[in-house]
């Protein structure tokens, strides 16, 4: 059963990444491989639980799942937001939707976290050559 959860998780991760292949099945998605020496099971937990169980649940499409994840990471001030902004673009979120989500969090999370998240988004958009439509609001 566990192997099925792992394979299901890998397939779900691949829906969010563009640079995956046989040698690197999770692409740019960090699943904890850097901690193999101190937490050898961490990658398995990330793949099986987070992606095999949670991300694979019905009810939300991939865009909604990424927006929910971005919202949570902005509110926590977590650096993993970079991975998820990229995955949002990979599943079809527009830069305007991502920025709109982040700015919408301003009254709930505060200026520092929103500004930090926008800096990350701006960096990713620049790296990917993405221009964002300016809002008048």
Can you tell me about this structure?
The chain has helices at 2-16, 42-54, 62-76, 81-90, 95-104, 106-109, 111-127. The model has no long low-confidence stretch (mean pLDDT 90). With 137 residues, the chain is mainly α. The protein is built from 7 helices and no strands. The chain folds into 2 domains: 2-54, no CATH class; 62-127, AhpD-like.
Can you summarize this structure?
α1 crosses α2 (42-54) and α3 (62-76) packs antiparallel against α4 (81-90). It is built from seven helices and no strands.
Count the DSSP helices.
Answer: 7
| SSE-based structural type | mainly alpha
CATH topology description of the largest domain = AhpD-like
Q: Rg to the nearest angstrom?
A: 16 Å
| CATH class categorisation of the largest domain | Mainly Alpha
Average of per-residue pLDDT values: 90
Beta-strand content bin: under 5%
- What is the N-to-C order of secondary-structure elements (H for helix, E for strand)? HHHHHHH
Helix content: 55-70%
Low-confidence stretches: none
Largest sheet: none
Number of domains: 2
Assign the CATH architecture of the largest domain. Answer: Up-down Bundle
Distance between the termini: 51 Å
**Number of E-state strands:** 0
Form type: globular
| CATH homologous superfamily title of the largest domain | AhpD-like
Quaternary state reads single chain
């Amino acid at each position: 059963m566990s192997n099925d959860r792992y394979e299901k998780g890998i397939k779900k991760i691949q829906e969010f990444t563009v640079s995956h292949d046989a040698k690197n099945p999770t692409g740019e998605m960090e699943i904890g491989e850097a901690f193999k020496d101190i937490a050898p099971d961490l990658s398995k937990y990330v793949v099986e639980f987070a992606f095999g169980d949670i991300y694979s649940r019905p009810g939300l499409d991939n865009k909604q799942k990424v927006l929910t994840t971005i919202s949570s990471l902005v509110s926590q001030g977590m650096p993993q937001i970079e991975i998820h902004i990229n995955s949002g673009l990979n599943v079809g979120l527009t830069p305007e939707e991502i920025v709109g989500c982040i700015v919408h969090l301003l009254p709930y999370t505060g200026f520092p976290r929103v500004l930090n998240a926008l800096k990350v988004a701006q960096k990713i958009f620049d790296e990917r050559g993405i221009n964002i439509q300016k809002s008048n609001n």
